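User: Some background: our group keeps a shared notebook of sequences we're curious about, and every so often someone picks one and asks for a predicted structure to add to the entry. Today it's my turn. The entry only has the sequence so far, pasted here. Could you supply the structure so I can complete it?
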Amino acid sequence: MGGKVLTAMNVVGFDGCNQPKEALKLMLDGAKSKIEECGGTLVGGHTIETPEMLYGLSVTGIIEPDKIYKNNTLRIGDVIILTKPIGLGILTTALKADLIDASKIEEIATLMSQLNYKASCVMKNYDVSACTDVTGFGLLGHMLEMASDKFSIKVKKADVPIIDGALDMANMGIIPGGTHNNKSYIEDKVEFASEDAEDIILYDAQTSGGLLIAVSKADAPALLAELKQNGYENSAIIGEVFARDKKAISVI
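Assistant: Of course. Here's the predicted structure to add to the notebook entry:
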């Protein structure tokens, strides 16, 4: 939304009975590196022993009130850029079932550990009207938030970046429950020019997905190029904003 991180505190639940202390150290070291990567300072935290491990951060930051990027302030004629490929929910479900190899595990871990920080900084240099991240509601769910009740978004299915192997897993039925829930919740608000079984990936619940950025057509090519230069190699223009039609989203 355009904010700047100042400080962060660890919130940790650790399974000390079944996990070595080295695992806790790795978690804390990894988090510290990400806090510092986006300009923040770790100022402490709270740790408890729990049978199921959990980790989060309590973050404090600042934002200029007149420079807040909201998720539903689109403009007709804007295009939508997605900064990371989708399919993380399906592939992490496949990981739990021991269906993917070490190289694919490394690939999805790298994607999930890539912050949206640089992308959020880059977009400030362009004519951006709205922004949101793609997480648990999936690509179409978060796009529905952007459309609100004022706009319609036309998505080019062929232009949506997808992680290699995700469609193969989906075709095998390796699909998380959250993805099915997303589809059930919003499918009546989405219109497909032609549907097939692989469309389920557009509803896939993501963990640490990318950003959806609404930007003017004139600025879109330059923004896209700069995103790719800053490590978001899979960034793509995937849709366009129109006046409200019968459906909030149409997939062509």
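Suggested note for the entry: Helices lie at 21-37, 88-96, 102-113, 117-123, 138-147, 166-171, 177-186, 220-229. The longest strand covers residues 4-14.
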